[in-house]
Specification:
Chain lengths: 394, 464
């Protein structure tokens, strides 16, 4: 049986696909509506592939682009039998301990280094230079606590959760009380974000707000320990009323992706039980053109103490206010605990309290407003819990 | 493996003196079998095979306390963290972390100190402490479990804790000390477990004929794949692991990541201090020696193990405890001198408040008292008493818990932001039940484990 006809595949040569065949094939393909040149070329190479003159990998790669362009997809797959062969060749090879250790080491290194890769970082920096901030004019504040009440109502807080807290104090050689409203400072270099083990606390890139993803927070309270301003309020028990549904949502960029990949997250309003909460600078009021740049405390204030806006924009509310103030001559500003390097984004206009400053009762007290509860009084120290009932009253 | 294999050379069964089938061990007959080995080993094996009614009583009691502990935990889960004595620092005037975190550092210190004891015994071949080496290792393992329990109890959302491992670990490990902590404690737990298992396999194999038959599946599991030839290799491995642990535990863990959880934060002057690593480490070591002394003393009393844990072991423990207590006092002196003489405002305020509080002296006082007694005891040998040494150990252990909790609470009571009122904290019954629960986890663990495995190495028992 040495007849030449029995030799497989060698019998078909490109000669059989000569000029006459080509003309016929092109005619057929043209009526079908596809690129005739590609079809002819593929047919020729297919015979070479079958004849063993062309490897499968070469064949697949040679026409990948052409196929994609012509048909949108490349539906050809490699020979499953060959793939199996290759897989077995790899798997059955004994991997030495050294190789295994190298692979494991490279895997672990890759796992931890991935976020450092230049490509990943580079894409994230393309947000605009936007940082919400606030100018608080201490000279205008009269300690009426309207801001605190408005915040309490708007965010459905519990009485002891002072997301905005007005400290009244007297300083050295002074008799009149001073007032210092403290909110979250939405730092540029926030320690609370750094210490969070689950990245629930994040600094929103598009507007610089420091927020908590309530659906991720594990309630370890480390952010509260790391914050130098004492503005975090844990949800120790059940929150007593529902915040309006709209308040619950904000956006967060999906890590490592460019702008436009935001997803809706639970960041605004009071947090659910066992999760950390703090002043959010009302993200539900930001981000829409008609609402942009308003805070509840700012709107509630009768004395125009708060001026909220983009600190990096010279025409924003806070910057315009500072310019206006500068025209009047005497002018002193400070930021809280600036020496710690957290980069707070609240600029206070007025005199910084000295180390000798002493707390005192303001014209309106938190007790009068009923904003004191659960083992806590604002002045005169907290009530010990030990002998009172430990069961929540609700 | 525990189950009988084909006998091979150097491992020939023969009839022992008491008509019991014993074995040649690596070519040599265990000569000690008929002398000291027998009595000490018998003493340990007696506890494993014979069980009195008192054992079941203690078991029941420990389980009852643990049931209470679980009730307290479920109470917390039902009502939220509001049932703890904690609150928000700042205008809230509360303390955000309290007894649970103090307890966490306490247990983790005992774990780190425990492994240091064991590793030092192995590296420097310390004869007098060798009988307590395995107890120290076993303490380290259970103390880590208790430490993690402390963390889990204070977490608000226990159900989400895996987020930290599954999705964000590679990013968060670059900045969050808490993630460093979780990572390194996991590493440490794995190392300690491996370390114990490696040395245990040999002992179980040697004693396998005399261990309780009922537990043979456990021994089969523990000695899976065991071959006597591995001993020589394991001995070297364990030596290197001991070296690794002795570097890891003091430098990276209790002198590193654990104090860094606090000392790196900008907010609290009470947490700040360049010597915080050594301060933590000294307290860890002294509390570990204390715990090992107490456990060894209880075993000696209950199981009549006077020969297993001789007076010389307690004398060595007392000396070690004395020197580590001295280190504690010296480092406290460092903190207090620098904190009182012309310090930064916040640091000065915390130091003065600390020195004026009763709690601080409840923490440091017993350590000082124990140091004085132990020093006198080592100067005048006729003062030596095993019981009093154990009392000194217990005092030290309790004092460290007080000191740790106070470190956390006082740090948060006196923040760097001077306009806020001083905070207030007293632990609630749930928190106290948590501490009690972890203590009884250890009680239950040692009550049971002494019945399961030899808690003293055969290598030590067979020494003349």
């Amino acid at each position: 049986m040495t007849n030449s006809e029995d030799k497989p595949t060698q019998g078909i040569t490109p000669d059989l696909l000569g000029p006459q065949w080509e003309a016929w094939a092109k005619e057929q393909l043209r009526t079908a509506g596809y690129d005739p040149d590609l079809g002819v070329e593929v047919a020729r190479d297919a015979t070479r592939l079958v004849g063993g003159q062309l490897s499968e990998a070469e064949f697949l790669s040679k026409y990948r682009e052409g196929y994609r362009k012509e048909f949108g997809v490349d539906g050809r797959t490699s020979n499953p039998a060959r793939a199996e062969e290759a897989r077995e060749a790899f798997v059955n090879k004994r991997i030495s301990r050294r190789t295994m250790l190298k692979l494991a080491g490279a895997g672990i290194a890759g796992y931890f280094l991935f976020p450092f890769l230049p490509g990943v970082e580079a894409r994230e920096t393309s947000y605009s230079n936007f940082q919400y901030g606030m100018v608080i004019d201490l000279e205008r504040c009269d300690g009426c606590l309207d801001c605190a009440v408005a915040c309490y109502a708007h965010n459905a807080l519990l009485p002891w959760q002072h997301w905005i807290y007005v400290v009244s104090y007297v300083d050295e050689n002074q008799e009149a009380p001073n007032f210092l409203p403290i909110t979250c400072q939405h730092c540029s270099n926030p320690p609370c974000v750094k210490v969070c083990p689950v990245e629930a606390r994040f600094k929103r890139k598009e507007d610089g707000l420091v927020l908590i993803d309530f659906d991720v927070c594990i309630g370890c309270k480390y952010c509260e320990i790391a914050c130098p301003f004492g503005v975090n309020y844990f949800q120790w028990g059940d929150p007593d009323r529902e915040a309006p549904g709209e308040l619950h949502w904000g956006t967060r960029n999906v890590s490592g992706l460019p702008p436009g990949n935001e997803r809706a997250v639970h960041v605004a309003g009071r947090p659910p039980r066992s999760v950390m909460g703090k002043c959010t600078w009302c993200p539900e009021r930001q981000g829409r053109e008609d609402k942009k740049g308003n805070l509840t405390c700012e709107l509630a204030c009768r004395s125009r103490v708060f001026h909220f806006g983009n600190l990096n924009d010279p025409e924003s509310k806070p910057n315009r206010y500072l310019r206006e103030k500068r025209k009047n001559g005497y002018f002193s500003t400070f930021r809280l605990l600036e020496q710690l390097g957290t980069g707070p984004n609240v600029i206070y206009v007025g005199q910084q309290p000295s180390a000798k400053a002493k707390r005192m009762e303001g014209p309106v007290t938190y007790e009068e407003l009923g904003l004191v509860d659960k083992g806590q009084t604002v002045l005169g120290g907290p009530k010990p819990l030990w002998f009172s009932t430990v069961l929540p009253s609700r | 493996m525990y189950k009988e294999r084909k006998p091979f050379e150097g491992h020939q069964p023969f009839e022992g003196s008491q008509g019991r089938l014993t074995h040649r061990w690596r070519g040599t007959l265990l000569e000690v079998e008929r002398t000291r080995f027998q009595t000490k080993t018998e003493n340990v094996l007696r506890v494993m095979t014979k069980t009195s009614g008192r054992f079941y009583l203690l078991l029941l009691f420990a389980l009852a306390v643990l049931a209470w502990f679980l009730y307290a935990w479920s109470f917390k889960l039902t009502y939220g963290e509001i049932v703890l004595g904690l609150g928000d620092w700042g205008p809230g005037g509360g303390v955000t972390w309290g007894l649970f975190i103090g307890m966490f550092i306490w247990w983790v210190g005992i774990a780190h100190g425990g492994i240091l004891v064991s590793a030092a015994v192995r590296l420097f071949n310390m004869k007098s402490l060798a009988p307590v080496a395995r107890i120290a290792e076993l303490t380290a393992l259970v103390a880590l479990v208790c430490a993690v329990t402390g963390i889990l109890m204070q977490l608000g959302r226990l159900d989400r804790v895996f987020i930290s491992i599954t999705s964000v670990l590679p990013r968060a490990i670059q900045h969050s000390p808490l993630v460093w902590d979780v990572t390194i404690i996991t590493t440490y737990f794995t190392l300690t477990g491996t370390y114990i298992l490696l040395t245990l396999r040999h002992d179980i194999y040697v004693l396998r004929q005399r261990l309780p038959r009922l537990l043979s599946p456990l021994y089969r599991l523990l000695t899976i794949g065991y071959e006597p030839e591995e001993d020589e290799k394991v001995e070297r491995m364990v030596w290197w692991m001991a070296l690794g642990l002795i570097i890891l535990a003091p430098l990276l863990l209790h002198g590193g990541v654990i104090p860094w959880l606090f000392a790196l934060l900008p907010a609290m002057p009470g947490f700040f201090g360049p010597v915080m690593g050594p301060v933590f480490l000294s307290l860890a070591i002294v509390s570990a020696f204390g715990v090992v002394t107490v456990i060894a003393y209880i075993f000696r009393r209950v199981h009549k193990w006077q020969d297993v844990f001789p007076d010389s072991t307690f004398a060595a423990l007392a000396r070690a405890m004395m020197f580590s207590a001295l280190l504690v006092l010296w480092l406290q002196l460092q903190l207090n001198v620098t904190g009182v003489y012309a310090p930064p405002i916040g640091v000065g305020r915390v130091t003065v408040a600390k020195l004026e509080s009763v709690g601080y002296w409840l923490g440091i006082g017993p350590i000082a008292a124990s140091f004085i007694y132990l020093a006198l005891q080592s100067l005048f040998p006729r003062l030596f008493s095993v019981g009093r040494t154990a009392v000194a150990g217990l005092l030290v252990v309790l004092a460290v818990l007080v000191e740790k909790t106070l470190f956390i609470a006082e740090g948060l009571m006196l923040p760097g932001f001077l306009l806020y009122e001083e905070g207030h904290y007293f632990p609630s019954w749930v928190e106290i039940s948590g501490v009690l629960g972890t203590v009884f986890i250890v009680v239950l663990y040692f009550t049971v484990i002494v019945k399961l495995i030899p808690v003293i190495e055969v290598r030590v028992l067979e020494e003349k």
